[in-house]
Amino acid sequence: MLAGCNPEKNSGEEADLLPNWYYAGGKEGTTTVTSSLAYEQPTVPVADGGKHAQFMNGEALFEKKFNSGATGTRSGLGPVYVRSSCLHCHPGYGHGKSVEQGTYQTDYVGNGTLLVVFDKADEAYVPWVAGMPQLHAVAPFKAPLDEQQITVDWLTVSTCAASGNVMAFPDGEPFELRYPVVNMPTSAIYGYEQLLAAGAKGIDNYEVRLENTIGIYGTGLTDAIPDDSITAQWAREEQAYNKGYLKHWKSAWFENGEWQPGGKYKSTAVNSDGKEYVRRYTYAMSRGPLQDAAGANAIWNITNVTRSDRTAHYLDLSGKYYAEIASKDPDVQAGWDNYIDRLISANSDYARFKTGNAEQDIYAYLTDKNLPAEMTDQEYEDFMVWHRGMAVPAVRNVHDENVKRGRELFTQIGCAECHRPSWTTGQDPVHDPAGFFREGDGKLPRYQNQLIWPYTDFVQHKLCMEKDIRTGWCRTTPLWGRGLHKKVTGDQYEARMHDTRARNVIEAIMWHGYSEESDALQSVKNFYKLVKEDRDALVAFINAI
Questions:
Q1: Distance between terminal CA atoms of the chain?
Q2: Which helix (H) or strand (E) holds 136?
Q3: pLDDT at residue 74 above 70?
């Protein structure tokens, strides 16, 4: 399998005939494996750099469940957590599956959607749950949100601006646009009455939406793109906005070729270096670089397993609401001695949380910023070797005339304006706000001077959809490898877009043109006018890349 990961193994005339866009992750980051294992292959620097054992150890940390034990492999789960393993949200290492009608359970591998709870007035995350709300707890603690009471309904719209509000193409082929509505009663919110008493707004002031997880493969390659290449793209799109080609522009971040206050990411981790970095990860472009984003963050806050550079628990954005409610909960107090005794037996440092005053001790434990590390440094290093070391599947059917025609149309109708096809990596210096990884330490695989094809501009745009993403601003999602989603995950749908609302490429494209205010409206109008043969060709290309 490793031999199949290296595109250089293609030799002779076959390799000479492959176009550069076949190598989605560049010559060092592309795998020729396109089976159900396509998303979990190592890159050339992993395979040829003596890091395969670490890669496999990191893979196990991703795949296997963490447990609430005080010692041993993958221990330290909780006290509250989002999922017990990364694989739960990333089946097959890719995007999560689409949520079924009428339910929202997350105790199985596949449901990669996270709940987003925000204030209607200012669209800010609510302070009484985490940005990624926890749905599970280790006894005696209770989950901040009870997922058993949360349901999702799928509704459809009857209008689409790009099609003149006709839900069919000119040749009569119909399409349907659906979107999710999350139902969360107040009884699902832990300590709701206490939250109100503490000054929180009532449930009618909030919205609850879904956000699906993104694929993990190839993130090491996008981390290797130079910062100034991304800011140059921002400058180009600022000019496009000024000329009227874009309807929306986040001028609060970037204006007249200069970054504005708040435009760069600054880590808020306890051990952060305090420096600013160019944003590039998450739908909200809230994270960057990779060593303080995506999986590096999730392996901590999804499981609440502490490590040497993350020595606090991930609870809520206020840092106090959950701790105050849980510390006063008689059930939690009753089970506190058994819970803390188990931790003390593994590490005597926990003894400071057993003074005889249960309420005080529970609050102190939940809010402490210097807890013992539950994940070893070696485990975290292995995890990041794996995380930064996953290849991107090679493009399929590159010699198919239909796919080549679709590639031409992708640019002609304007898709490539936001889904920028290619980037070139730079020297790939190591950036880690926590200082765990340092330049020159040789711990991580690196990708220098690679031509890669992620199909994203690393810019946020607005599509103005029904029940849209929080704030409406969404980073252009990389398209590479997405055509293999169903094969890799077993999902019944392709689960495209931020909340899996699009069941296939056609629906994803038409959602881009749902509103007259969408940045992509003209491109979708162009797509709508295509004859069916050309529409099918564009779909074939998008599924091939």
A1: 21
A2: strand 136-137
A3: yes
Hey, is 60 helix, strand or coil?
helix
Can you read off the two tokens belonging to residue 501?
Answer: 């609302």
Written as one letter, the residue type at 332 is V
Query: CA-to-CA distance for 497 and 507, rounded, in angstroms?
Result: 10
Angle between helices 330-346 and 358-367 (to 10 degrees): 60
DSSP character string of 35-67 = STTGGGPBPHHHHHTT-HHHHHHHHHHHHSPP-
Rounded Cα distance, 500 and 97, in Å: 7
- Reading the block at residue 324, the tokens are 């105050």
Whether residue 277 contacts residue 289, with contact meaning beta carbons closer than 8 Å, is answered with yes
The dihedral built from the CA positions of residue 65, 317, 325 and 340, taken in this order, carries a sign that is: positive
**Cβ neighbours around 275 below 10 Å, total:** 11
Question: Three-class SS string for 356-400?
Answer: CCHHHHHHHHHHCCCCCCCCCHHHHHHHHHHHHCECEECCCCCCC
Q: List residues bridging with 145 in a β-sheet.
A: 189
- Residue 17, Ramachandran bin (φ over 0: left; ψ between -120 and 50: alpha; else beta): alpha
Q: Where along the chain do its domains lie?
A: 80-215+305-367
Answer yes or no: are the C-beta atoms of 271 and 309 closer than 8 Å: yes
Cβ-in-10-Å burial (0-12, 13-18, 19+) of 537 comes to buried
Rg (CA), the chain: 24
Give the burial string for 506-523 (b: 16+ CB within 10 Å, else e). bbbbbbbbbbeebbbbbb
Q: Which residues pair with 174 in a beta bridge?
A: 168
Q: Which residue has the tokens 């504005």?
A: 260
In terms of Cα–Cα distance, which of 406, 400, 384, 387 is closest to 479?
406
pLDDT over threshold 90, residue 243: no
**Which residue is associated with the tokens 């796919």?**
403
> How far is Cα 169 from Cα 507, in angstroms, rounded to an integer?
12
Distances from the Cα of 446 to the Cα of 28, 43, 237, 347, 535, angstroms:
9, 10, 29, 36, 38
pLDDT in tens, 157-176: 999 999 999 999 999 999 99
Across the chain, mean pLDDT equals 93
> In one letter, which amino acid is 355?
T
